[in-house]
Amino acid sequence: QQTADQSALITDLKEEQQTADQSALITDLKEEQQTADQFALSTDLKEEQQTADQSALITDLKEECAARTSDVNHLTQRNGEQAQQIDHLRKNLDGTSKQLQQTQFHLDQTRSDKDHSLEGVV
C-alpha cells in the first residue's frame, strides 16, 4: 500500500510539475506575444507618425511653392509694366532727340541766314 501511495504521490507530483511547466510556458508565450504586439503597435505608430509628418511637410512645401509662384507672377507682371514704361520713355526720348536735332538745324540755318544778311550790310 505504501508503494502504491508513493507511486500515486509521484504521479500527482509529476502531473503538478507538468501543469506548472505548462502554466509557465503559457505565461512566457503570453508575455512574448504581448511584447510582439507592443512592438508591432509601436512600429505602426511610428509609421503613422512618419506618414503624418511627411504629409504635413508636403502641405507646407505646396503652400511655399504656391506663395513663390505668386511672387514670381507678381514680379513678372511688374517687369512687364516696367518694360512698357521703358519703351514709352524711349519713344519720348527719341521724339525729344528729333525735336532737338530739328531745332539745332533751324538755329544753324537761322545763324547762317543772319550771317549772310550781315555780309551784305557791311
Give an overview in words.
- By secondary structure, the protein is mostly helical.
- The protein is 98% helix and 0% strand.
- The chain is built from one helix and no strands.
- The protein starts with a helix and ends with a helix.
List the helices and strands and how they pair.
Layout: H1 2-121
Order of helices and strands: H
| N-to-C CA distance | 176 Å
Structural class: mainly alpha
So what's the overall shape?
A: rod-shaped
Residues in β-strands, percent: under 5%
Question: What are the segments in which pLDDT stays under 50 over at least 5 consecutive residues?
Answer: none
Helix content: over 70%
Number of strands: 0
Largest pleated sheet: none
Mean pLDDT: 93
The DSSP helix count reads 1
Radius of gyration: 52 Å
Essential attributes:
122 residues; 1 helix; 98% helix
Outline of this structure?
With 122 residues, the chain is mostly helical. It has one helix at residues 2-121. 98% of the residues lie in helices and 0% in strands.
